[in-house]
Amino acid sequence: MYLINKNQQGVGMIEVIVALFILAVGLLGALAMQANSIKSNQQATYSTDAQILAQDMVERIQAYNDIDIATDDAEYHDLDLSVTNPGCAAAGCDKDARKQHDAFEWATALRQRLPAGTGKVAFDASAGVYAVAVFWDANQDGSLNVDSCTDDSRAGVQTCCATQNTCYLVEFML
């Protein structure tokens, strides 16, 4: 038979409680890392989608533009993203309807794939360079304020992109 010293009664219980506390702290740390990983993964998805959507508009502009005609270079400058679907995709669009259709499809994709997603397109005629910017609210807290960017020039789009918390900017020369 074992004799237990009265001074050591409950020591095993305290050891178990301390071990459970240490385990709980470790599990909370792992949980915090998992949550941070999910947030980072979501941000990477948004950045990738923004790059894809910006490149989509670049390709639409290049497909529309006739390299031999300079008068159509600025057709997509200050693109209106509030347009409605012209409904000409199946039958084929004329020149103006094609631009409206491109704006409608791009705006729809921006809103569907990015939180508060929107975009701006600007053309600098003196340099022959387009700027295509895609904006989104990465924090999803309503902090995106592209409406305050009223300068629709290429420099204005660059400045607007620099002042927003999440923006992807592509510039290309025709």
Task: Explain what this protein looks like in three dimensions.
With 174 residues, this protein is of the alpha+beta class. It has one domain (12-173). It is built from 3 helices and 3 strands; from the N terminus they run H-H-E-E-H-E. It has helices spanning 11-64, 95-113, 154-163, and strands at residues 118-124, 129-135, 167-173. It has a 3-stranded antiparallel β-sheet with strand order 1-2-3, with helices on both faces. The radius of gyration is 28 Å and the shape is elongated. The model has no long low-confidence stretch (mean pLDDT 85).
What topology emerges from the helices and strands here?
Elements: H1 11-64, H2 95-113, E1 118-124, E2 129-135, H3 154-163, E3 167-173
Antiparallel strand pairs: 1-2, 2-3
Task: Write a concise synopsis of the structure shown.
This protein is α+β, with helices and mostly antiparallel strands and 174 residues long.
